């Protein structure tokens, strides 16, 4: 009786009414029941459902983190959907908002449940919240499954993100355990059997011990001694500066140069009459106004248009209409007018621009389709433009195409040769490869160091997010290809950079502080 009266003394009726009202829609005192010492916190049905609420919280958190860290590839995701649906929409942003809303919703339910447990109230989740919990759980699991099937490389992105976020995720996990200490301690005290107390406290302490020790196996290239950080990776504009201007246009490349980019990347196709021009997609539908000028040819391959026909297309209005990047901001009036007047750019003009500003160039070459008059002459035509029309300084050209490398090395000595995949160092040196151009998910500080020892540098694409650029910097990358030259140029040092001593202090202080708080909660 004394024990029960002591517990009831701290009951705050208005506060409990709000908690129970939002969680159970039970606003009246007579509708609620207290948890008696030694009794379960809820009915059998609620006991069976509560793990589902916990699962919904965990899965929604995992999906929100996974999708949030995938922001680097949102444009690629939206581009993929454009190819399947036929219209442009920022699906990536919609999914991020939905994931954040659902996680917030289920987190509030978890907080309410923890507060009710701490106040000794029996749990009863209203049926509407149960439906909501099932929806969150179903959405999160199905979304994670879809990502694992349709976007397998995304798992590599998440693993890379752990290399920079793990120390801070560790602090967050410890903070959650401190918050959970109150309801765990309260229910352990209320339990009338030692076995029940062990069942309640045992798993909690096991998880806490695991979190205390997990930094022993943690690795991050951004945790390093002072003075060991390499130079800042050079920035190569991916199709120019496509967050500031229409991709693969003169304006886009000028924006890259204006913001201090070190190189320019593009995609090269050949018109039906043999003019190399810049275009990434197979068709002209996404990046021109072909639906207005040639409405019957929207599905026609870009290479089957003559150069005269291509010159009639506008390559900028789509950019103002679709706003292809999340958070790209608004353009000035002058930039809007300039974007509206962009046209398809030739390879010759692109090379002259790069040469005049002493910028490196790297490009993907697209062989013309079947029945194209230049299908078997395309390399010669491109080399002719590089060597005779533009006369760009040869050391500025990073030659990536691997099909006829020996021929190119013979007729165009002086090019820097790059390979698009990892290979044994002996093979790379045999073919005079000086740079690897790799997708960022292949990033490995060990491989970067191994290739650097053989004087082979590494470039990673496409790196847009500051955390990923910071990881590339800490790992020793020589350069990155990016859509966000204007953002990454301002980063003066890697994010999350710290010395091992600083990290050890942070780790030990976190563990000691949390251990003190948890001990204090259990003691009270």
From TrEMBL:
GO molecular function, one term: glycerophosphodiester phosphodiesterase activity
Membrane topology per record: Multi-pass membrane protein
Biological processes annotated in GO: lipid metabolic process
SUPFAM superfamilies: PLC-like phosphodiesterases
Pfam families in alphabetical order: GDPD (PF03009)
InterPro entries (UniProt xref): GP_PDE_dom, PLC-like_Pdiesterase_TIM-brl
Protein name as annotated: GDPD5 protein
Organism: Sterrhoptilus dennistouni
């Amino acid at each position: 009786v004394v024990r029960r009266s002591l517990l009831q003394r701290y009951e705050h009726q208005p506060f409990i009414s709000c908690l129970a009202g939002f969680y159970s829609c039970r606003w009246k005192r007579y509708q609620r029941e207290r948890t008696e010492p030694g009794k379960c916190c809820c009915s059998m049905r609620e006991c069976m459902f509560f793990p589902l609420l916990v699962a919904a919280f965990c899965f929604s958190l995992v999906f929100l983190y996974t999708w949030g860290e995938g922001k680097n590839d949102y444009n690629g995701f939206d581009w993929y959907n454009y190819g399947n649906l036929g219209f442009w929409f920022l699906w990536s942003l919609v999914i991020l908002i939905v994931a954040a809303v659902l996680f917030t919703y289920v987190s509030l339910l978890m907080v309410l449940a923890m507060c009710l447990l701490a106040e000794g109230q029996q749990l009863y989740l209203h049926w509407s919240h149960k439906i909501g919990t099932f929806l969150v759980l179903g959405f999160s699991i199905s979304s994670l499954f879809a990502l694992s099937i349709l976007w397998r490389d995304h798992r590599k992105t998440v693993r890379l993100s752990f290399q920079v976020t793990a120390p801070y995720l560790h602090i967050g996990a410890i903070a959650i355990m401190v918050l959970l200490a109150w309801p765990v301690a309260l229910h352990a005290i209320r339990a009338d059997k030692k076995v029940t107390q062990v069942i309640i406290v045992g798993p909690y302490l096991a998880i806490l011990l695991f979190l205390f020790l997990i930094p022993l196996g943690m690795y991050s290239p951004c945790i390093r001694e002072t003075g060991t950080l390499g130079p800042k990776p050079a920035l190569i504009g991916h199709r120019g500066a496509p967050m500031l201007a229409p991709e693969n246009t003169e304006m886009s490349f000028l924006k890259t140069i204006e913001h201090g980019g070190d190189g320019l990347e593009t995609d090269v196709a050949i018109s039906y009459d043999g003019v190399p021009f810049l275009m990434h997609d197979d068709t002209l539908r996404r990046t021109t106004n072909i639906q207005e000028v040639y409405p019957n040819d929207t599905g026609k391959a870009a290479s089957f248009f003559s150069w005269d026909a291509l010159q009639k297309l506008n390559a900028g209005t789509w950019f103002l209409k679709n706003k292809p990047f999340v958070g790209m901001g608004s353009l000035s009036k002058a930039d809007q007018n300039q974007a509206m007047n962009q046209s398809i750019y030739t390879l010759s003009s692109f090379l002259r621009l790069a040469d005049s500003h002493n910028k490196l160039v790297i490009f993907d070459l697209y062989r013309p389709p079947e029945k194209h008059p230049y299908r078997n002459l395309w390399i010669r035509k491109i080399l002719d433009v590089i060597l005779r029309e533009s006369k760009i300084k040869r050391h500025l050209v990073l030659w990536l195409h691997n099909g006829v490398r020996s021929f190119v090395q013979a007729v165009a000595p002086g090019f820097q040769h790059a390979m698009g995949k990892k290979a044994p160092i002996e093979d790379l040196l045999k073919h005079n490869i000086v740079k690897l151009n790799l997708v960022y998910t292949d990033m490995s500080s060990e491989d970067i160091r191994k290739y650097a020892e053989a004087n082979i540098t590494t470039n990673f694409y496409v790196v847009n997010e500051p955390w990923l650029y910071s990881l590339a910097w800490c790992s020793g990358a020589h350069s990155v290809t990016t859509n966000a030259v204007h953002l990454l140029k301002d980063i003066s040092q890697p994010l999350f950079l710290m010395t091992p001593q600083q990290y050890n202090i942070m780790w030990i202080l976190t563990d000691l502080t949390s251990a003190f708080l948890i001990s204090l909660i259990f003691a009270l």
